Structures are given as structure tokens and as C-alpha cells.
Amino acid sequence: MPNFSFTDLFLVCGCTIVVAFLLSIIVDWGLEFFCAEHDKPFFSYGYANHNGPHTWRNYYPECDGKNQSPINLMTKKALVVNDSDDLLWFNYHIPPSCIKIFNDGQTVLVRAQWPEALWPTIICGPLNEQYGFHTILFRWGPEDEEGSEHTVDNRSYAMELQMVHVKKGFTTPLSAIRSGAKDGLVIVSFLFKLMPVDNPLLDRVVYNLWRITSPGSNVTIPAFPLNWFFEPFCSNYYTYNGSLTHPPCSESVLWIIQPEALAISSRQLAEFRKLMSHDGRMTSNSRPVQKNSQDVYFYSSN
Ligand SMILES: *[C@@H]1O[C@H](CO)[C@@H](O)[C@H](O)[C@H]1NC(C)=O
Ligand SMILES: *[C@@H]1O[C@H](CO)[C@@H](O)[C@H](O)[C@H]1NC(C)=O
Ligand SMILES: *[C@@H]1O[C@H](CO)[C@@H](O)[C@H](O)[C@H]1NC(C)=O
Ligand SMILES: *[C@@H]1O[C@H](CO)[C@@H](O)[C@H](O)[C@H]1NC(C)=O
Hints:
The chain crosses the membrane at residues 9-31. InterPro entries: CA_dom (IPR001148), CA_dom_sf (IPR036398), Carbonic_anhydrase_a-class (IPR023561). By secondary structure, this protein is α+β, with helices and mostly antiparallel strands. 17% of the residues lie in helices and 29% in strands. The chain has one domain (65-299): Carbonic Anhydrase II, CATH 3.10.200. It has helices at 6-39, 173-178, 203-206, 266-273; strands at 72-73, 79-81, 87-90, 98-103, 108-113, 121-124, 131-140, 151-152, 159-167, 185-195, 218-221, 237-242, 253-265, 276-277, 280-281, 297-299. The strands form 3 sheets. Strands 2, 3, 4, 5, 6, 7, 9, 10, 11, 12, 13 and 16 form a 12-stranded mixed β-sheet that branches. Strands 1-8 form a two-stranded parallel sheet. A two-stranded antiparallel ribbon has the order 14-15.
């Protein structure tokens, strides 16, 4: 039997105690780190059960606000503005130098580049300022019959194309929102109705969707002027003060909604539903209509 002196024993035990103490600190720290992560899970909004629209208000209080979007437009209740100033569109016919499409995990984004002087802008109508084009995004649903976020007299449309514009003086939607301006953003919306044949003007985007199937991907596509998608309109549209339809749901958006629907086919819609989010296939990315009662205006030409 080895002959341990008291000092030896003390050294061995002392070291063991120190090592055990250090180990316990590391384990504690590890547990704390691990548990902290579980106490405050990272929230990434989406449209699945665990992160869908009914959960957003828990993480983004503004989603519970009084001027939320989308809404059901009740055409009979809209306040008619007669002989309104025409809404004016500049440079939407100019082909950009480059167009990119993105899968951001929630939708398809279309972004483009022009020389500064040729940047597409809108002005007049209900706008007090000039607004520059920033992004187009799409909203769709699990079935061909429902996909739009806004409804008109309770009618849902197959898809909604939303053109986000940023107030002059700001470069991104986020900077416009952070400024606190109630009119930092203007979103012009187009609804789509189902047609038996493809809409060829959507094909540059639709044909390239398979290249951005995975969330976070992007690709450059052949450029085209934005007015391929739609006919610029001067009057006969709805407008109201609302919010972003996704977190952070900021109430700094003037919506302009063109009630004349564009066309899309069932086959084209199906291509959008093949995209992947972090929660599986993007079968739907529409927030349901919100029950608040903003004034809705109809800007009429006569
Ligand atoms: C706008 O015109 C319509 C029909 O011409 C009329 O009923 C309405 O009272 C007018 N509204 C205003 C605010 O002048
Ligand atoms: C829309 O639905 C609401 C609630 O279900 C109903 O009160 C209203 O009459 C409907 N409006 C139209 C134009 O169908
Ligand atoms: C676009 O995708 C490429 C990889 O293909 C990536 O390097 C780049 O960061 C992406 N751009 C943006 C703005 O997300
Ligand atoms: C939106 O709100 C602003 C004030 O913040 C107001 O001047 C404007 O008339 C409102 N527009 C509509 C369409 O309600």
C-alpha cells in the first residue's frame, strides 16, 4: 500500500476539488447557455402552425395594432374622392440594367437596378411626396381560389402582387419604418384572377422559380420593364392607411389597390407553391384579413 503523507493527500484532494469546481462551472455555464436558448427561442416568422400569423403578436406588439393590413375592401362603404389628382408613374417602362429574384423563406422578391435618374417612381393621387420603387413580392394560398391578402366584398383572389415603394429621402423600407413616418411606404397591390391559359408576361419570373427553390437563394433573370406586369393606372383605385402584412407589422403603409384583376393560370400558381420555406413547402403566405375599421377611399376619375 503506497504511503501517502498528509501533504500528499491534501494535494491530491485539493486538486480534485479544484478540478471538480472548474468542471462544475463549465457544466453550469453550458447548461445556462443551453437553457437560455430554450427560454427565449429564436423566432422566425412564417405561415406554419408554430410561427404563423396568429403567433406574431407575441413577438411583435405592432401586429396587434388598430390599423393592420390586409383588410376586406367594402366597395359600397368606400368614401369616393371625385375628380382626384391623377396618380402618376415615371420610368416603369424603362428596362432595368439587372433583375434578381429571391426566395427569402417567406415569399418571392423581385428587385432591380436602374441609373438614379431613371429609377421608377410614383407621385400625386393620394401621395404628398415622391415614392421610389423598391421590391415586388407575391402572396398566394394553398388553393387556386384563395391567395390574395386583400379581399374585395369578401371575395378572395388567386394571388396578390405587392409593389413596395419607399418615400423620397429613404433608401430601404426599414429606414423609412424606423423614422416613424406614418407614410414611409406605399404599397401598390394588384390582384390576380384565375384564367385557363398562362399569362405570358409572368413567365420570366415563373420559368425561373425552380432556381430559387431553397430559402435564401437568389438568381439573376433576363431584365424586363416593370410595366410588363401591369398597366399603370391614374384613377379608379382604393386607398387606405394600413400596415405591413408581415412582421414587424409597422403601421406606416399607404395602400393603393387596383381592383381590376390581372390574369394567372393554375399551372403558374402551382410553380410558386413548389418553393420551400424553412418549414417545408410554401403553400401559403397570406395573412388573413384584419378586423379593424380604417376609412377606405375610392379615387374616382369623375
Ligand atoms: C362624388 O360623385 C358621386 C357621383 O357622381 C356623388 O354621389 C358623391 O356625392 C360625390 N362625392 C363628393 C364628396 O363630392
Ligand atoms: C362580407 O362578410 C361580412 C361578414 O361575414 C358580411 O357582414 C357582409 O355582408 C359581407 N359583404 C358582402 C358585400 O358580401
Ligand atoms: C445571392 O446568392 C449568392 C449565391 O448564389 C450569394 O453569394 C449572395 O450573397 C446572394 N445575394 C443576396 C443579396 O442574398
Ligand atoms: C392617411 O393618414 C394621413 C395622416 O397620417 C392622412 O393625411 C391621409 O388622408 C390618410 N389617407 C387615407 C387614404 O386614409
